[in-house]
Design a protein that fits this description.
Helix content: 40-55%
Distance between the termini: 55 Å
Oligomer: single chain
Order of helices and strands: HHHHHHHHHHHHH
Strand content: under 5%
Number of helices: 13
Length: 203
């Protein structure tokens, strides 16, 4: 039935294989059932065919109670899938503040990079999640981390015109002159649109 559901759910990735019952509960946020499965000996760090654990799935969907349960039962806060994405990266890229807080409290690496060298802060900045960006910076995130194209959180926030993110990053010491592999800095990105508010923040 799950494959039928997946076909019509609009998920952008293929239906997972090696999908355990605990992963199913994590995906749907079924905390009571997940608790029962763990009591019966379910592997808290089992992986599907893409390397995704129950904690990765629940962080992706933003289920706080299941996240808390899995972490309490010893789930690896820095488990990663084949793309190098951790639970914190998923929570950050989808705007799940409380889930990110729980993961960080359990020691999740604030600067963990995926296979494209993108950190939680970079994902957060490029998706306009201000409170999450503030949290990550408070926890010591590298404000000038670069992805595999040399682009920083400030580059992405400027490129997308996210004024409040730009302001936050600059207040935390972001370098407006770092260039990506194509030689474009946040200043250059801002100059593409002379009417945009981020320009005033960067210049």
């Amino acid at each position: 039935w799950f494959q039928v559901y997946w076909t019509y759910a609009g998920e952008y990735y293929r239906c997972p294989q090696d999908f355990t019952n605990l992963m199913l509960c994590s995906y749907f946020g079924l905390e009571a059932v997940a608790r029962l499965l763990l009591r019966k000996g379910a592997n808290v760090d089992s992986k599907d065919n893409q390397g995704r654990t129950p904690l990765l799935w629940t962080a992706l969907k933003g289920h706080l109670e299941v996240t808390q349960l899995l972490l309490k039962k010893g789930a690896n806060a820095d488990s990663k899938n084949k793309k190098g994405r951790t639970p914190l990266l998923w929570a950050a890229s989808n705007g799940y503040l409380e889930v990110a807080q729980k993961l960080l409290k359990k020691g999740a690496n604030v600067d963990f990079k995926d296979n494209r060298d993108r950190t939680p802060l970079l994902w957060t900045a490029s998706n306009r999640y201000l409170e999450l960006a503030q949290l990550l910076l408070e926890k010591g995130a590298n404000v000038d981390s670069k992805d595999n194209q040399g682009r920083t959180p400030l580059w992405w926030a400027t490129h997308k015109g996210y004024l409040h993110i730009v302001q936050l990053l600059l207040e935390n010491g972001a370098n407006a002159n770092f260039e990506d592999e194509a030689g474009r800095s946040p200043l250059i990105e801002a100059s593409k649109d002379t009417k945009s508010d981020p320009i005033e923040q960067v210049l």
